[in-house]
Structures are given as C-alpha cells and as structure tokens.
Amino acid sequence: MSNKPIGIFDSGVGGTSIWKELHALLPHENTIYLADSKNAPYGPKGKDKIIKLSIKNVEFLLKKDCKLIVVACNTATTNAIKVLRENYDIPFIGIEPAIKPAALQTKNKAIGILATEGTLSSELFHNTAALYSNGITIVEQNGNGIVELIEHGKADSQEMKSLLKEYLSPMIKANIDYLVLGCTHYPYLMPLLLDFLPKSIKIIDSGEAVAKQTKAVLVQHNLLNNATIKPKNKFYTNSNPRVMQTLLNENFNAEYLDF
Ligand code: DGL
C-alpha cells in the first residue's frame, strides 16, 4: 500500500478527461496533474522534442514523489513512453488510440481515427494499425488545430464546428461505423460530435481502459492507497488556469505554476 500520489501529465488540459476516469475508479488516490499548456500542442513538434518535454514533466512529477505516472497524452505515449520506461524505475501507464476494439467490432469494415500528427506518424501507431487493418479500411485524420482551440477555451466554437466538418465528412463518406478519438483533448468535443455525426457511428476512446489498467498495475505492485483520509488532488498548469478550471468540477482547483 502507498499513499504517494499518482502523477498524470499531458501537453495541456486534455488529459483531465483521463484524470476524471481515474478519479471515478480510484477515488482514494492522491493525484498530481500536470498540464504543459505552455508547450501545447505537442503533435507537430517531432519525436525528439516530444521526448524532451515528456522527460521534463516526468522529472517534475518524480520530485513530487509520485508512485506511478500516467502519460495522459496519446502523442507523448506513442513517441516517448519507451524512453521513459527505459530511463525511470517506476510504472508508466500510457494511452493509445483504441484501434483494436473498433477494428474488432466494425460491421461496415471501415473505422475512422482522429489523432494528432505526432500520434499518426509514430511507429507504435503504425504497428498497431498494421496489426488490425486486415480487411478493414482505416481512415486516418490529423486533427490539426483542435488542441489549440480547446487550450484557448473554444471547444464549442464556430471554428471548431468548421474543423470537425472538414475532418469528419470524408469519414462519413467512407461509411465508417466507429470513430476512434485518438487524443485526450477530444472527449471534450463530445457534444459537437454527437450533433454532427450520424447516430449509426459509435465514438470510442481509451479513457476507461487507462483507468482500469492503472488500477491493475497498482494492485500488481501493491501500491493502492488504502488510507481513508480525504485524498489530495492537485492540478498545475504553466498557462492560464482558467481554461483547466472550467473543465474541472468546481471542487478542484487549477493552479498556475511555471515548470
Ligand atoms: N492530449 C494530447 C494527445 O492525447 C494532445 C497532443 C498535442 O498537444 O498535440 O495526443
């Protein structure tokens, strides 16, 4: 058992969608969330830079004595988790686009993946896509610009509606029946997605699976927190905390910190 915190980081506020899943499943755990919004988006930055930024975030969380780190960012996971696991001696949980469940369940034999350039160009993504693409059309779309809008509090804007129309129309034409959200910012688009997409298209992401995997790894390492005192949940951002605050329940406080 351990009452040390779980560390969570993302290029920005999107990983709070993962934190919500974690907190729902593991409400007794102390958590520290790091939003590197100053450096968002990670997607177009290239592998080396994404690795450097991920290491910076991990170093910060290790100084805070985290017992496990959740890389709540598909772009950082697909580009950097291998290096992180090689260099640090604590468990890491990553997130990748949920290609497998979509590919196994599609009836139309066509699925869509919306993710960042960094994720779609990664080796890890290519390998997983190759594994499940047999007999299935995978329509990949780079969600250029979506993360920036969410980071500026514009998840529900006209600009966002236009971007989604541009990115998703080819998928509808390709007759997909599953849309995979391959970026942790994208669950915040759910209202617009449900509005725009035909009802026959199911939307999936990996948030719940990440929470379950985190729990399993904590159990396996004997690291669950069994203390009954109210846990602490800290949220740090190196940009304007207002955006993160609006995504969090008002019981939780987003703080500015220059890291
Ligand atoms: N939330 C990150 C992800 O899941 C966004 C990456 C970015 O900043 O481009 O990929």
Automatic annotation (TrEMBL):
It is an enzyme of class 5 (isomerase). InterPro entries: Asp/Glu/hydantoin_racemase, Asp/Glu_race, Asp/Glu_racemase_AS_1, Asp/Glu_racemase_AS_2, Glu_race. The active site is at C73 (proton donor/acceptor), C183 (proton donor/acceptor). The keyword Transferase does not apply. Coiled coil: none annotated. GO terms for biological process: cell wall organization; peptidoglycan biosynthetic process; regulation of cell shape. GO terms for molecular function: glutamate racemase activity. Pfam families: Asp_Glu_race. Provides the (R)-glutamate required for cell wall biosynthesis. This is Glutamate racemase. The lineage of its organism: Bacteria, Pseudomonadati, Bacteroidota, Flavobacteriia, Flavobacteriales. The gene is murI.
